[in-house]
Amino acid sequence: MASNVEGDRNEPVNEQVVANTYASMRSELNQIYSKITELEMEVSEHSLVINAIQPLDQSRRCYRMIGGVLVERTIKEVLPAVQRNKEGLEEVIARLNEALEKKKKDISDFEAKYKIRIRKADNNEKQDDSARKEGSAQGVLVGPAGGSE
To answer: How many other C-beta atoms are found inside a 10 Å radius of the C-beta of residue 82?
Structure first.
């Protein structure tokens, strides 16, 4: 029985399983980040709508998309619904931020347990230097001046 315990302790951990688990955890972290970003953009859009319709006459007609159907309502009916939706989105973002912090902690614990360090490739530095030498106006696209021809 003692040999089984020693065998388990001396048995090397499968590096591929650890790497796959770590990659999966990082992927989940990235998904949470992207979902938070997406929801923050929606909150921003809700804020724009609220700011645009709030000063208007409450009996004025407006249109709202509900389940793919455009519905005519008044501002008085739509404004509270948009505000509730915005508050709901903010609550979801808060919960996702909590999940994000928990996932970050889990990843750091996993990194500490398996002594995972992320290596930065030396090739990136060489590529960055060569890119800087080529020109500093990268990523800018300017269309032709004047009207359409």
So the answer is: 19
Cβ–Cβ under 8 Å, residues 75 and 58? yes
> From first to last of its 149 residues, what are the pLDDT tens digits of the chain?
544 444 444 334 688 898 999 999 999 999 999 999 999 999 999 999 999 999 999 999 999 999 999 999 999 999 999 999 999 999 999 999 999 999 999 999 999 999 888 888 765 555 555 445 444 444 444 445 555 44
Phi, psi of 69, rounded to the nearest 5 degrees? -115, 130
Q: Taking the domain 14-116, which CATH number applies? A: 1.10.287.370
Name the pairing type of β-strands 69-74 and 61-66: antiparallel
- Beta-bridged to residue 4, according to DSSP, are none
Classify the C-alpha dihedral 90-92-94-45 as positive or negative. Answer: negative
Is 110:22 a contact under the CB 8 Å cutoff?
yes
Measure the CA dihedral 135/139/144/149, to 10°: 140
pTM of the model: 0.70
